[in-house]
């Protein structure tokens, strides 16, 4: 027994896809996505997507890494093993910049990768639109809008009719196991 997972509609070109995304957003749908064989400038605005919080995640992780690097070196040199070397003070921050910078970059890189995975809800090995035979063209020459069944405005018949009315071709229900 298969269950409905959403509706998928094909559009002819990038301009139609951007126009469709605007209309889908204006109709109140929130759980929808646009699929294209290449990035389309202006698609984020058409879909009403907000700016990504990834920059804040990376910034926080870089500051965390720098703080850990400088703090660890301070604790070792000035608290746990205070040795006078060549008459330098116990805490000589200039000598600690290299390790601090390395941890700054390392934590920032981990923040970027892990933040991207979290924000993109990865790893997701299978998406419901993969059940559609038409969707294979999304990596070649077709442009699609998919609306998921979890959307509060989703209704099988009304959503299919809506996508057809805004110019969608090959509108189909996506059903899976």
Structural account:
The protein is an alpha+beta fold. The chain has 2 domains: 99 residues, Alpha-Beta Plaits (2-Layer Sandwich); 66 residues, no CATH class. The protein contains 5 helices and 4 strands. The radius of gyration is 25 Å and the shape is elongated. The N and C termini lie close together (7 Å).
The biggest sheet amounts to: 4 strands, antiparallel
Q: Could you estimate the helical fraction of the residues in percent?
A: 40-55%
The oligomerization state is single chain
Contiguous low-pLDDT stretches (5 residues minimum) are none
Form type: elongated
Strand order of the largest sheet: 2-3-1-4
Q: Which whole number gives the mean pLDDT?
A: 93
> Structural class of the helices, strands and pairings?
alpha+beta
Quickly name the level 1 CATH class of the largest domain. Answer: Alpha Beta
CATH architectural group of the largest domain: 2-Layer Sandwich
Q: What is the CA–CA distance across the termini?
A: 7 Å
The amount of beta strand, in percent, is: 15-25%
CATH T-level fold name of the largest domain: Alpha-Beta Plaits
Write down the secondary-structure element order.
EHEHHHEHE
Task: Name the descriptors.
single chain, 5 helices, alpha+beta, 4-stranded antiparallel sheet, elongated, Alpha-Beta Plaits, 177 residues, 2 domains
Condensed summary:
By secondary structure, this protein is α+β, with helices and mostly antiparallel strands. 46% of the residues lie in helices and 15% in strands.
Write the layout of secondary structure elements.
Blueprint: E1 3-11, H1 14-26, E2 32-35, H2 43-47, H3 54-80, H4 93-119, E3 143-148, H5 156-165, E4 169-176
Antiparallel strand pairs: 1-3, 1-4, 2-3
Helix pairs in contact: 3-4
């Amino acid at each position: 027994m298969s269950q409905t997972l959403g509706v998928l509609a094909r559009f002819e070109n990038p301009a139609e896809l951007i126009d469709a995304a605007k209309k889908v957003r204006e109709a109140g749908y929130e759980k929808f996505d646009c699929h294209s064989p290449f990035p389309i400038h202006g698609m984020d605005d058409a879909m009403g997507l907000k700016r990504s919080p990834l920059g804040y995640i990376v910034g926080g992780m870089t500051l965390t890494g720098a703080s850990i690097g400088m703090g660890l070196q301070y604790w070792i040199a000035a608290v746990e093993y205070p040795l006078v070397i060549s008459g330098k003070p116990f805490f000589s921050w200039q000598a600690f910049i290299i390790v601090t910078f390395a941890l700054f970059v390392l934590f920032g890189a981990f923040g970027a990768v892990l933040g991207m995975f979290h924000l993109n809800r990865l790893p997701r090995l299978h998406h419901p639109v993969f059940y559609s035979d038409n969707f294979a063209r999304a990596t070649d020459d077709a442009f699609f809008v998919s609306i998921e069944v979890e959307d509060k405005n989703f209704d099988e018949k009304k959503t299919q009719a809506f996508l057809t009315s805004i110019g969608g071709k090959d509108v189909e229900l996506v059903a899976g196991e």
